[in-house]
Write a structure and sequence with these properties.
about 130 residues, alpha+beta, four-stranded antiparallel β-sheet, 4 strands
Length: about 130
């Protein structure tokens, strides 16, 4: 058996954070959903059953949680901070698809949320 690509998925992490341009958003905060689709070669773990051969998603969550505590005006900046931090700590990450949704955006619309999605490539991964 050959492995073509491997992904770690962490779906709909929930946070209450204080991102936004409006002063009220910085004061009361908002609820956010965050989803990660991380390209990471864990082919060794398919055989070894050893967490050292994969990306530990509990450690990924800790980094994401830490970054969500740092208030930013834009979700674009939050996404960039999370991606940079993950790649810095886990240099074997090849790519990250990251989606952040503000659940109740203050824009006067009836919607499930508004947010950003970005595809980041680790230009130092050698892949």
């Amino acid at each position: 058996m050959k492995v073509k690509e491997c992904y770690i998925n962490i779906t709909n992490l929930r946070f209450h954070a204080y991102h936004g341009v409006l002063p009220q958003e910085r004061l009361t905060g908002n609820d956010y959903l965050l989803t990660l689709h991380i390209c990471y070669d864990f082919s060794e773990a398919l055989i070894s059953d050893d967490v050292r051969h994969t990306l530990n998603y509990a450690e990924v969550y800790q980094i994401v949680s830490e970054e969500m505590k740092h208030s930013c005006n834009l979700l674009e900046k939050v996404a960039g901070n999370i991606g940079s931090h993950l790649i810095q700590v886990f240099p074997l990450i090849q790519a990250i698809d990251l989606q952040i949704t503000k659940v109740n955006p203050p824009m006067g619309a009836d919607c499930k949320g508004a947010g950003v999605e970005v595809h980041l490539i680790n230009d130092k991964s050698g892949v």
